[in-house]
UniProtKB/TrEMBL annotation:
Key word Membrane present: no
Reaction(s) catalysed (UniProt annotation): (6R)-NADHX = (6S)-NADHX; (6S)-NADPHX + ADP = AMP + phosphate + NADPH + H(+); (6S)-NADHX + ADP = AMP + phosphate + NADH + H(+); (6R)-NADPHX = (6S)-NADPHX
YjeF N-terminal domain span: 10-268
Protein name: Bifunctional NAD(P)H-hydrate repair enzyme
Length: 557
């Protein structure tokens, strides 16, 4: 697990290092800027080749882009970079990048959004260093307005563009504070070649991964997404939450984290973590244990014609290692179920009384309710299941059944429960929290999916796993993690019918094995994505449990 920081947490870590005298802010900025250049050369080694270099005097002479034949016969030209600097320390990093590239013979054009006199001290030093190298700093906005799209032309013909406009300090409303700042965001940045964002693409809130809206009436601009679309994002020390949640991943391109020599992140309850590979020993089974040592899960099913979802959960629970799995079937579906199952067992569960009777068997240590269950059956069985105080997963219909009275559900939940809502179910159970999350933010740091899941878990009094490509899991004490299915873990084929039922089964199976709710939810979410990656395109829900043996083998389980 690695930490995913907020801007405030990053500032605390940075300030503590500076206060301890280990490092200065200026040194951190130098390392950050150099880290960006290093990451660029690692990503595009062709840019690191020396033969492109020319003398510094020619470095600002851009000239028109040659035709292909001309280019073939011409002397090698210097590589061209445009660096867009903002008014804070993100801009300071940009000046370092500009200097380092210029020292390597690149032709570098720097545009400053803001007033050089008002730059914060470290950024100001780097502005001076850039100027001392003979570097010119163009005022950004006047260039756009006066030279009729000059900057645009440069951007679209540059070999590299650096976005150092806003980083973790993006806080104010883009429109109302600076009615003209939108112009930076009005560029079709997705079409710019090799656009590299320093820390975070400008316009993306690093805490929430949301883009900030602007008041289109005040600025007179068309509505749009006012954020840069980067091909590569280079961040420092640790990834930030915004790199992994909401629309952040879609705008970051690829994220590289560069070490800038800060100390390890101290353990603090408020710090959210990215779920990483579970340790194999957790998942291994004891060589002497019998099946009952690995728990017995009960998965309640729906009626006739509605049993498939619970079977998917059962398959998931078995494959993840539950010793036994029993499907609790209403009479109408007994024949259907019997003709479909082999390894899972089944038992008749006819209503509240039926479930009470079945739960007298205390070996049933993990319950799953929801997949394909039907809301009526869920309303009848959920209270009985919760009163039994077993580890319990509530998914799908077991959540929607309480849309009209979520408080009644919360009153019955206990700390052995895991709720697994997707976006729609989340809205039904936590409408006020969802409304806050879905509000388009105008200021940073914006309310995030992490904030929303934490608040929901606190209210529910149990673990909440809020699904999505950015699944967030939180417990009532504020512990929180993100299972990011982005970048090299992108698993778009997981968005398929029944995949949530398998996830509920994985969690139930792990709970049966004795995992704590938070650990079960985190491990299941991680395995779920790994199974999808293992199978690849063409995946359907049935395939997911079948990938577990291969995933386990790779983990060394
Ligand atoms: N925190 C750290 O440990 C380090 C930070 N560094 C860099 O510093 C950045 C953070 O610097 P800052 O805190 O100065 O923040 P930024 O440089 O991200 O931006 C803050 C500046 O933008 C202004 N601003 C914010 N919202 C605005 C809006 N909507 N319209 C116009 N202006 C707006 C602020 O008033 C401030 O001047 C990081 O992203 C990173 O790039 C690095 O130099 C290395 C170390
Ligand atoms: K940036």
């Amino acid at each position: 697990m690695t930490e995913l920081l907020t801007a405030a947490q990053m500032r605390v870590i940075e300030q503590a290092a500076i206060d301890s005298g280990e490092v200065t802010g200026l040194e951190l900025m130098e390392r950050a800027g150099r880290g960006v250049v290093e990451a660029i050369f690692e990503e595009w080694p062709e840019l690191a080749e020396e033969h492109h270099g020319l003398t510094p005097d020619l470095a600002t002479d851009w000239g028109p882009t040659p035709e292909p034949l001309e280019a073939f016969n011409a002397e090698p030209r210097p590589l061209r970079a445009v660096v867009l600097c903002g008014p804070g320390n993100n801009g300071g990093d940009g000046f370092v990048v500009a200097r380092v590239l210029k020292e390597r013979g690149w032709a570098v054009e720097v545009f400053l959004y803001g007033n050089a006199e008002k730059l914060p001290p470290d950024a100001r030093v780097n502005y001076e260093r850039w100027s001392g190298l003979g570097g010119i700093c163009h005022p950004w906005l006047s260039t756009i307005y006066d030279n009729d799209g000059d900057l645009r032309g440069k951007l679209f013909s540059a070999d590299l563009t650096i976005d150092a406009v806003f980083g973790t300090g993006l806080s104010r409303d883009l429109g109302s504070v600076h009615a003209d700042v939108w112009s930076a965001f009005d560029l079709d940045t997705g079409a710019i070649c090799r656009l590299v964002a320093v820390d975070v693409p400008s316009g993306v809130c690093s805490d929430s991964g949301e883009t900030l809206d602007i008041d289109c009436r005040a600025t007179g601009v068309d509505e749009g997404l006012f954020a840069f679309q980067a091909e590569l994002t280079v961040t420092f020390h640790r990834a930030k939450l915004g790199h992994h949640i909401a629309v952040g991943p879609a705008l970051c391109g690829k994220v590289v984290v560069k070490d800038i020599g800060l100390p390890r992140v101290p353990a603090a309850p408020g710090i959210c973590r990215a779920i990483g590979e579970p340790l194999a020993p957790w998942l291994r089974k004891s060589s002497t244990g019998h099946k009952f040592a690995n728990g017995h899960a009960l998965i309640l099913t729906g009626g006739f014609g509605k049993t498939g979802a619970a079977r998917l959960s059962a398959r998931g629970a078995l494959r993840v290692g539950a010793g036994l799995v029993t499907l609790g079937v209403p009479p109408s579906a007994q024949m259907e179920m019997a003709s479909h199952i082999t390894a899972p067992m089944m038992t008749r569960v006819e209503g509240a009384e039926g479930l009470k009777a079945v739960l007298e068997d205390v070996r049933l240590n993990a319950l799953c309710l929801g997949p394909g269950m039907g809301q009526e059956r869920a309303r009848e069985l959920v209270p009985v299941a919760l009163a039994a105080k077993r580890a319990t997963v509530l998914d799908a219909d077991a959540l929607s059944a309480f849309s009209d009275e979520p408080e009644a559900l919360f009153a019955q939940l206990h700390e052995q429960c895991v709720l697994t809502p997707h976006g729609g179910e989340f809205v039904r159970l936590f409408p006020d929290i969802a409304a806050k999350l879905n509000e388009v933010p105008t200021k940073g740091p914006a309310y995030s999916k992490v904030d929303a899941t934490r608040e929901a878990a606190k209210r529910a009094g149990c673990v909440v796993l809020f699904k999505g490509p950015d699944t967030v899991i939180a417990d009532p004490k504020g512990r929180c993690s993100v299972n990011s299915a982005h970048y090299d873990r992108a698993a778009p084929w997981l968005a398929t019918a029944g995949s949530g039922d398998v996830l509920a089964g994985f969690i139930t199976g792990l709970l049966a094995r004795g995992f704590a709710p938070m650990q079960a939810a985190e491990t299941a979410a991680w395995l779920h994505v790994e199974c999808a990656l293992e199978f690849g395109p063409g995946l359907i829900a049935e395939d997911l449990p079948e990938q577990l043996p291969a995933v386990f083998r790779k983990l060394g389980v």
